[in-house]
């Protein structure tokens, strides 16, 4: 892992890409977050609920889905703390990403707040079954999102 | 379907290859592969390039074919994330097995270090379930495997020390592999003291960012027998897709796609896992090697760390694994990893691998397990020298 001297190079022309990500079909989810609600889709044909929400049922392929409110109760399945961050998250403090099982049986991925992302504390506290609740967050700038916090 | 053999292999030096561009890097494995097969560029009617898309070249197959003037070939580029060149190998295999062509070339090539590390972390993180997991929560590729590591350690009582043991073994074998990125052995203590990247995974649990290429030449049975006395047969190459969306996963202690691919491959090859003499598995992170051993069927669920603790995955053990250094220490140039595995295993089955890294070949079978993403794609290939 010795540091070798960099070889000669020419810098490419710079390219900044910012994509427009369509949310028409999941708009009620994002609008719901602004009102403190945690919503998802349920198929009117077969009854399957999905998370994240999707406009077409992946089980019976019906496109007749309705929006339902989730309970915000969850338990931890697994988690990690991101110490080495991607460029676009470089300004964030170390964050914990968790996979949780919602009371309704669905799984969801999101930030886990309220636990110090320190290895010793993580080792002690990150145990499957830990009770969590979902909180909606509406930042002053940027998009609304949700987090898990210990219940 | 016709029988298909590997008749030529070539490999570049892996590492931070800022001395070459994509075409030049591919050439370093294309030339020796053609020489090994005894073929000329104009003898290649079908070219498949496995590439994950990390360099400035938006049409990597074109850049590579142009540089090596492989102008007689029908060509395409195949993407299956870190399993791109196994998917490319499957494509080449089918072109030959179906009778479309007698010979095919499969080039795995990736240039990752043209971008600075934080950008590579960004791009690979985005290559998961982008909108719901990256856009809002910044999940990285080490993070994806760290979620599985935390679940595995919690469920089976394995420790971070077991993960370090995998790294120590793979560094040991990379130290004697001239193509490997890391040529130094490490100790358990060094690995355990390294900084966390995504808890519970540390720096020494992670594969590096790598440039590299590896090329495989395939031929149909009749042609293969004319070209070489040591054909290595593809007994099976099977793949399966899996959920990128973590919220749709049943479990975090194994990768379903790899389990299905392995089951299909063993069924096709009509053998059981205990017949495999040597294996390369997708150890992009140390936890991935443990899960792979269980997903392939070398041991039962939750028992891989015990085999590692007993040293059974070293040469001389029950099942030598990643004795070329693995992704962990040989390096992991995304689109070149699948063909790099086939390079090592072909040399192993021919009995002509690096002396210190040569595994005993008793049954004549080797296995490559190549995963894209965190089990978003999986390919299992079984090779046989008989």
Secondary structure topology:
The complex is a heterodimer of chains A (151) and B (386).
Chain A: H1 27-34, E1 39-43, E2 49-50, E3 65-69, E4 73-82, E5 95-102, E6 107-112, H2 119-125, E7 131-137, E8 145-150
Chain B: E1 4-11, H1 22-37, E2 46-50, H2 60-67, E3 74-78, H3 84-97, E4 103-110, H4 117-126, H5 130-134, H6 141-156, H7 160-174, H8 188-193, E5 196-199, E6 201-202, E7 212-220, H9 221-227, E8 232-241, H10 256-269, E9 276-280, H11 286-296, H12 304-309, H13 326-330, H14 337-350, E10 365-372, E11 377-384
Parallel strand pairs in B: 2-3, 2-4, 9-10
Antiparallel strand pairs in B: 1-7, 1-8, 4-7, 5-6, 8-11, 10-11
Helix pairs in contact in B: 1-2, 7-11, 10-11
- CATH top level assignment of the domain at 4-114 and 209-227 in chain B: Alpha Beta
The 3D shape of chain A can be described as: globular
CATH superfamily membership of the domain at 4-114 and 209-227 in chain B, which one?
A: Thiolase/Chalcone synthase
How much is the radius of gyration of chain B in Å?
Answer: 19 Å
- Report the CATH topology name of the domain at 4-114 and 209-227 in chain B: Peroxisomal Thiolase, Chain A, domain 1
| CATH arch. level architecture of the domain at 4-114 and 209-227 in chain B | 3-Layer(aba) Sandwich
Bin the strand percentage of chain A: 25-35%
| Unreliably modeled segments of chain A | none
Please give the largest β-sheet of chain B. 9 strands, mixed
CATH architectural category of the largest domain in chain A: Beta Barrel
Report the span from N to C terminus of chain A.
45 Å
Mean pLDDT across the residues of chain A is 95
Count of the separate structural domains of chain A: 2
Q: For the residues shown, what is the average pLDDT of chain B?
A: 97
Radius of gyration of chain A: 20 Å
Give the structural class of chain B.
alpha/beta
Helix residue percentage of chain B: 25-40%
List the uncertain runs of chain B: none
